[in-house]
């Protein structure tokens, strides 16, 4: 029987795992493999704990492995930009932030709902929702998302854009980026 001191925590590892649909993947293997954590078991446990989450939502996971290969993990809501982009229906934030015309628009009410969701995160316990709102407003501004009481006329049609289409757009942007980077190297 080992005294508890023999079991020490190896560190903390941050992963982003798609809610309710985690499956063994190379990236996850690179994180879990060296720690001796069985990827299948982790996925099963994670999916069981996120059944109520919408599939594919990028949950932030903090994994705390111990030397005896046991582990525990905490989950947090997705990063703020994910919520803001999804709400504004834009595949990515603007490159110039507040220095350019807004690329998206969300209402104060929506911002408040995002803050409410973030306030459930372990590290946000006790933080006033107002404080979280202010932080989100800064993030939104840096991403070129305008926060207003009502949606601005130019963004009135925003919700005609299905949220499901955002991932597709994001993929296309990534491919375009890759292509343009490759193209630039030939010179």
How would you explain this protein's 3D organization?
The chain has helices at residues 26-32, 39-49, 80-88, 108-118, 129-142, 164-185, and strands at 13-18, 58-65, 71-76, 104-107, 145-148. With 187 residues, it is of the alpha+beta class. The protein is globular, with a radius of gyration of 20 Å.
Structural class: alpha+beta
Please indicate the percent range of residues in DSSP E strands (runs of 2 or more).
5-15%
Q: Cα-atom Rg, whole angstroms?
A: 20 Å
Quote the average pLDDT. Answer: 90
Give the strand order of the largest sheet, numbering strands 1, 2, ... along the chain. Answer: 1-2-3
Name the helix and strand elements from N-terminus to C-terminus, one letter apiece.
Answer: EHHEEHEHHEH
Low-confidence stretches: 1-5
Total helical segments: 6
Largest sheet, described in full? 3 strands, antiparallel
- Give a count of the beta strands, DSSP E runs of length 2 or more: 5
Percentage of residues in helical conformation: 25-40%
Give the end-to-end Cα distance, rounded to a whole number of Å: 66 Å
